[in-house]
Design goal:
four-stranded antiparallel sheet; globular; four-stranded mixed sheet; AcylCoA_DH/ox_N_sf; Butyryl-Coa Dehydrogenase, subunit A, domain 1; FAD; Butyryl-CoA Dehydrogenase, subunit A, domain 3; 395 residues; Acyl-CoA_Oxase/DH_mid-dom_sf; Butyryl-CoA Dehydrogenase, subunit A, domain 2; oxidoreductase
Length: 395
Amino acid sequence: MAEESSVADKEHQDFRTVMADFAAAEVAPYAAGWDAEHRFPSEAVGKLGELGVFGLHAPEEYGGAGDFTSLCIAIEEIGRVDQSLGITVEAAVGLGINPIATFGTPEQKQRWLPDLVAGTALAGFGLTEPENGSDAGATRTRAELVGDQWVITGAKQFITNSGTDRTSLVTVTARTGTRPDGRAEISAIIVPTGTRGFTVEPAYDKLGWHSSDTHPLTFTDAAVPADHLLGERGRGYAQFLAILDDGRVAIAALALGCIRACRDLGLQYAGERTAFGVPIGSKQAVAFQLADLDVMAHTADLLVYSAAAMRDAIDRGTGPGLKAYKRAASIAKLQATEYAVTATRIAAQIFGGYGFMEEYPITRFYRDAKILEIGEGTSEVQRLLIARGLGLDVE
């Protein structure tokens, strides 16, 4: 509902209504089935593409329109009914489109962005590896320039949107040499789907996000043209860090959708369920839990959309600077995602025994929430970044 958000201008309110209506008609009736079947909702992704959702923070010349605040609204509203589809959109934009839009050559942008922006294609970003997560700088995947080709060998894990029927490419980080200071030179390289030696392994059996597409990837002498290098050689890891702030705010928006879903589902149930002859919502124990959920939703909203407004201001050249935005992004990500995990626990408690039954959507939100504290930078990483922003020399 637009009136409950800190984003009060009419344009964004109208867009929120459009997204809420779409989520109610095209997502909510099917989300439980997609989850139970572990089925990627390709048709819904296509409809979101037609709605222009994947282009909300993309360059206009490649079909984009809108701003970062609109993208966060879209992710939040989708996330209120299906967290799996919400993360599909978040990853498609933040990890699929943004690296190419930000660092790609004109030729790379012209080749890949139109389909990605239209939602007819998806892209993944291969950073995490089997033996490194938060320490992404310890990349072991290697790429050697042999003639006019990069030959890639290694493995990636937990890669979203990497094996769908719409996936057209995965951008991967790889060691391409050694820097003068002895550290690894890490570059980003675009690997199209179907490249010989590039194998998308069977999907994970996950606790949650069942209809989101997530795979390990293997590269065995996978060769791509030299012009598939994305951005400057040796800057791959730095490039990823540069786009990660937007992803953190977008994940916080997804968490906000989860919190509001918990509040709304709990409120509805508390009005319908009776105990001792009265609705359970009339009991202080339940009423106070719902009040806490409302406070969490309100607080997360302020954090998410103040950070999103900073991003839009930076895009317009009027922002407070990247340092302030990075801090706001980490704070929003940390608080909103930890609130989301707490909110699902509270909501499940309100439902009592029914909160443990798969027939109720609260169980799906409960399973989906935990990963929010991990993906796009763990809570520990966010606290580390915030502490460093305070001037503390902490590792």
